[in-house]
Amino acid sequence: MTIRLVVDGRGGLRRQILDRLVARSNGAIEIALHFGDRDADFHAACLQRMEVRPGRRGHLMQDHLSRGADIQLLASESYRWMLEQGVEQLQRAGPNYRYRSHNLQSVQDYLDYYHLLAEAYAQQIEDTGATHALFMNMPHLGYDVILYHVARVLGLKILVVSQTFFADSFFSMAAFEDFGHMNPDGPDGPPIHIEKGSAPDLFYMEERWQKTGPRGRLNAKAVLSLMKHVALKRPAKLMSPSYILGNLRRMRDVYGSLPDWRDPFSGFFHENELAYFEHLAGYEGQKVDLNLPFVYIPLHNQPEMSTQTLGGPFRDQILVAEAIARDLPEGWRIYVKENPRQSGYARGPMFFHRLSRIRGLQFVPSETSTHELSTRAQITATVCGTAGWEALRKSRPAIVFGGAWYGDFPGVHRWHPGMDLRAIAADSFPHEALERAAGNLAARCHAGIIELLYKDRAKDFDPATNAEAVAATVQDLLEGRRPLTFARKALP
User: Fold this and answer.
1) Pairing with 237, which of 299, 329, 350, 362 sits 20 to 30 Å away (CA)?
2) pLDDT per position as a tens digit, 78-127
3) Residue 243 lies inside a defined structural domain of this protein
4) Three-class SS of residue 422?
5) Is 106 within the bounds of a domain?
């Protein structure tokens, strides 16, 4: 049977891989529907922002008349969860967070657009006779997660591939809910040496973010961001010097309260962003007693794949703190640290109000070293972040609430109600077992680059060679000749 693919894959690198996939399959694989850039069937990013940017087949909504093709979503047991997840991910392109934003405002607006997209997707899938869906990144932007929902409900066979932050490798799975569950039928590999106690090499994090430094200063980029916001979102305020000068004073105070590596408004300004950073500045300068027993909760940057897709209900990260507080031993503390890349998304006034009501919890200053916190903590608790991986490298246990890639490693405890935190804190595991687990996961990964951001981390990267290698692997995965990286063990 010919595999007819629905593909979500943007960028020239993925386009090259797709071209090689079709060419080398000799007719066994066809692209039924491609969501990507303007050279694809439909322009994907414009669906997120509700713009009219045609692909080769025009715009998805062009001449579209509903025939109820999405009605099968209603019959799914996961319908309400899918709806909530899709709406929440569409919000990341909302007017409070982007200059180029969609115009969805009310809950009903989001519900309407979810179903407009879902119905259009379902029609296209039916009309093209698609049999499989290939996602060349973890769905996490809104338009793509809705496509994933529709493909799953319509019974397409799904393959999701996602770049690892290790050099030159990617994961594979049939459902993003499987992420972090190592395929029991996959190959094992030799142990990988991990220097005990060392921090992972994270190219997207800077070491200065963990150190005390001078305070920041209001800069020209921030002033331009304010004026852009006023011109685009509040044009009537252009004639109000008191509004502009009042915001500039508040911005100056925020910069002066935070480390100089924090540049809150250099790229985007909104009144909600300003309120968030004023809240954050209020926690600077507090003392943190690391001699007390504590659970460390490092917050994820939002909106991102780690929470929006892999977090499940714990994309609401306060639920992590509330769950830990429920079982917190007497005399223990909970130390919560904000992500150094975080902006105002999912951080409204109620966020801080909820945190302040959790027993034993302290929101620590931004300059508190995450390395020191994970070293001194009894437990590191995270949705699925690399802070848990760092704790394991220090022989410290971790509790994960979502889909962590290291979820099956020794020292990891998947959250469930009523956990005995004292017993988990006493958990010990040989470092050699961690190295074996890392080697087994590496053996289940696939060589190649599917995310352009990681190109420079690969040795001797050649686009043509990479496209051929990745295409061969993807073909094997689609045709069942190669085991997936992640797959939950089937129940007997």
Assistant:
1) 350
2) 999 999 999 999 998 998 888 889 999 999 999 999 999 999 999 999 99
3) yes
4) helix
5) yes
Whether residue 59 contacts residue 53, with contact meaning beta carbons closer than 8 Å, is answered with yes
283-327 per-position pLDDT tens digit: 998 999 999 999 999 999 998 888 889 999 999 999 999 999 999
**Domain boundaries, position 467:** 3-168+448-478
Query: Are 319 and 346 in a shared domain?
Result: yes
Tens of pLDDT, residue by residue over 159-197, are: 999 999 777 899 999 999 999 999 999 999 999 999 998
CA dist., res. 381 & res. 490, Å (int): 28
Domain boundary among 259, 281, 303: 281
Question: CA 35, 37, 41 angle in degrees (round to 5)?
Answer: 45
Q: Residue ranges of the alpha helices (H) in 336-382?
A: 349-356, 370-376
Return the H-helix or E-strand segment holding 258: none
Q: Are 237 and 321 in the same domain?
A: no
Clarify whether residues 325 and 427 are in a common domain: yes
* Backbone dihedral angles phi then psi of residue 375, each to the nearest 5 degrees: -75, -40
Q: Are residues 268 and 302 in the same domain?
A: no
Specify which residues 243 forms β-bridges with: none
- State whether 146 and 94 are in the same domain: yes
Instruction: State the pTM of this model.
Output: 0.92
Pairing of strands 446-447, 169-173: antiparallel
Where is 366: in which H helix or E strand?
none
Q: How many structural domains does the chain have? A: 3
Domain identity same for 412 and 437: yes
How far, in Å, CA of 144 to CA of 308, rounded?
Answer: 12
Q: How far apart are CA 83 and CA 85, in angstroms?
A: 5
Q: Strand 157-163 relative to strand 169-173: parallel, antiparallel, unpaired?
A: antiparallel
Instruction: Give which of 285, 295, 302, 313 is closest to 358, Cα–Cα.
Output: 295
124 lies in the same domain as 149 = yes
Pairing of strands 361-363, 333-337: parallel
CA distance 213 to 426: 35
Local structure of 361: helix, strand or coil: strand
**Strand pairing partners for 43?**
36
CA dihedral 197, 201, 206, 210 (to 10 degrees): -10
Domain end marker among 254, 281, 308 = 281
Q: Is 266 exposed, middle or buried (0-12, 13-18, 19+ CB in 10 A)?
A: middle
Q: What is the rounded distance in angstroms from the CA atom of residue 86 to the CA atom of residue 147? A: 10
